[in-house]
Amino acid sequence: MSDTQPASGPASFPAPYASGPAFPLGVKLLATVLVAYTLYWGVRSGGGMLASREAWAGALLSAVCLVLVVWTLFWMWRSRTSVDAEGITQTWIWTKRVRWADIGQSRLIGLPGLQWLVAPRLMVRPRGGGVLVFHSADRAVLAVFASFVTVGSPLIPGAPRVPGADGPDATS
Q: pTM, whole model, 2 decimals?
């Protein structure tokens, strides 16, 4: 899926207004170094584990865990967050989607000065329940997140005003 094509599926959104990587390059590089070291440690200790007949179960469990960690790292590098007039989409191991009108509460979380280490994220509580977290390393996407949290609606051309939003111009 390219940045300019809509997401496919039954709940597809229009072409994104802003789209970018979900995680900053620093986070991806740090995760890659940690996974590489874990793989190195696993290969070094694997020979000792396989020498004992009783350690096969532990070696198998370690191998499965390493595969899951590498799979998560792959998706960290591939994940993208997009916003459009309809809502938010983030590709991940599973694609997360929410429409602006379905969001009951939202909070933008980030550590100024440490965004290279801790990816900024928007936590949303859809009206139907649950919590969704959308990471973003793109300034345009973060600006839309900030406008939604502050004003109560995304500042995107063509985006409808979200009913019941708690913005400065909301009526009581």
A: 0.75
